[in-house]
UniProtKB/TrEMBL annotation:
PANTHER family: 7-CARBOXY-7-DEAZAGUANINE SYNTHASE, PROTEIN YFKA-RELATED. Transmembrane segments: none annotated. Residues 28-257 form the Radical SAM core domain. InterPro entries: Aldolase_TIM (IPR013785), rSAM (IPR007197), rSAM_sf (IPR058240), rSAM_YfkAB (IPR031004), YfkB (IPR014866). This is Radical SAM/CxCxxxxC motif protein YfkAB. The gene is yfkAB. The keyword Metal-binding applies. Gene3D superfamilies: Aldolase class I. Keywords: 4Fe-4S, Iron, Iron-sulfur, Metal-binding, S-adenosyl-L-methionine. Pfam families: Radical_SAM (PF04055), YfkB (PF08756). The lineage of its organism: Bacteria, Bacillati, Bacillota, Bacilli, Bacillales.
Length: 374
């Protein structure tokens, strides 16, 4: 098997992260719509504790909006740079992969747009091989040190008993698929959440991600949303502790991407400032400003409803049956919540907090009046 990409697009690297909204902000002088996320299914064979869209998962679903309609709407986004495909588990049905996802990926490749698919990689490998020639990033969640961890985290909200044997088989399939696809040339980015279960396990999780051949390890704090809404919320000191420990033990040859961090150069606490300084100095480490509320919209391909993100509490701002993506984006720009986090500090290339971060740790703080303390 050879899944190596033949794209003329610039290779993914710490110097080239097309999903970071800071790029288009610096290029155009303001946030513009450069990223669209497509929710292609609400079906999933897992019910992960940390799932940001867990409450929207279903056991069956109706017909999707025709792919031709979606492509027509994407054609109208002048500065589109990235398309993300999410669910549910996008590869849940082989027919969906063949007749819906692959045409979207081909469209993106022909237009010079980077693509990412979010998957648990537990399905037959042939489904992923169909996508491989046209896909830039296979994004997986990996928060485990063993099959037992996988069972505990992946099925805690299943509403039914899942045997150790069944969960163990899926875990083995995920690991085997990750190794095989990585060896074949697929760029696999494994994301780990910092939460009460992973706080002291991140170094071991990182080691397994390296062993599976992934090209990037993403690390994100887990904020209260969907299935995770009632889980214990860590303090800023706990997040800092976990990140420092991970940096101490990581493989320095592997790209590490930290996203949605709750630390800002305009904060006065010394511990947070020390962590940010270390992150700036570490080789092969990047910190991505979160796209949510900046340069991305999400569309539900069953209802046509368009959202700021796939897990925000902000209601739908439009529908692709009646609105262009750009019209919905302009509607968001006029929204009071947008104004509350719409800040940019060129001194440290920061465009402020994600909505979930602001709500969780910075209620009442006006970031638009602050500046970096460096």
């Amino acid at each position: 098997m050879n899944t190596k990409l033949t794209s003329m697009l610039q290779a993914m690297s710490p110097e080239n992260d097309p999903w970071d909204p800071i790029r288009s902000l610096q290029r155009h002088g303001k946030h513009i719509l450069t990223s669209v996320e497509l929710t292609v299914t609400n079906l999933c064979n897992m019910r992960c504790e940390h799932c940001a869209v867990g409450d929207s998962l279903t056991m069956k679903e109706g017909p999707r909006i025709p792919v031709a309609t979606i492509l027509q709407r994407l054609d109208q986004v002048e500065h589109l740079e990235t398309i993300s495909i999410t669910g549910g588990e996008p590869s849940y049905h082989e027919q969906s992969v063949r007749d819906y996802i692959v045409p979207v990926l081909k469209y993106a490749r022909e237009r010079g747009i980077h693509t990412q698919l979010n998957s648990n990689l537990t399905m037959p490998i042939a489904r992923y091989e169909m996508m491989a020639p046209y896909l830039d990033v296979m994004h997986i969640s990996f928060n485990y040190t063993s099959a037992q961890d996988f069972h505990r985290v992946g099925f805690v909200r299943a509403g039914r008993q899942v045997s150790d044997k069944a969960a163990g088989k899926l875990y083995e399939t995920m690991v085997e698929n990750t190794i095989a696809l990585s060896r074949g040339g697929m760029f696999i980015s494994a994301e780990s959440m910092i939460n009460y279960l992973t706080l002291d396990k991140l170094a071991d999780i990182h080691r397994l991600i390296v062993e599976m051949g992934c090209q990037r390890h993403e690390v994100h704090p887990m904020y209260p949303s969907s299935f995770a809404a009632n889980l214990p919320r860590l303090s800023l000191d706990q997040y800092s502790y976990a990140i420092h420990r991970l940096l101490d033990s990581r493989d320095r040859d592997l790209w590490m991407l930290f996203g949605t961090l709750p630390y800002y150069a305009c904060n006065t606490d010394e511990a947070g400032q020390r962590l940010l300084q270390r992150l700036r100095m570490e080789p092969n480490v990047t910190v991505r400003n979160d796209p949510d509320g900046r340069n991305r919209l999400n569309v539900n391909l069953f209802t046509g409803d368009v959202y700021v993100t796939d897990f925000s509490d902000v209601p739908s701002l439009g529908n692709i049956h009646t609105d262009k993506f750009q019209e919905v984006f302009e509607r968001w720009e006029a929204h009071p919540l947008h104004a509350s986090v719409n800040c940019y500090c060129p001194a440290v290339s920061c465009c402020g907090p994600n909505l979930l971060v602001a709500d969780s740790y910075y209620k009442g703080v006006d970031f638009t009046t602050r500046a970096a303390l460096i």
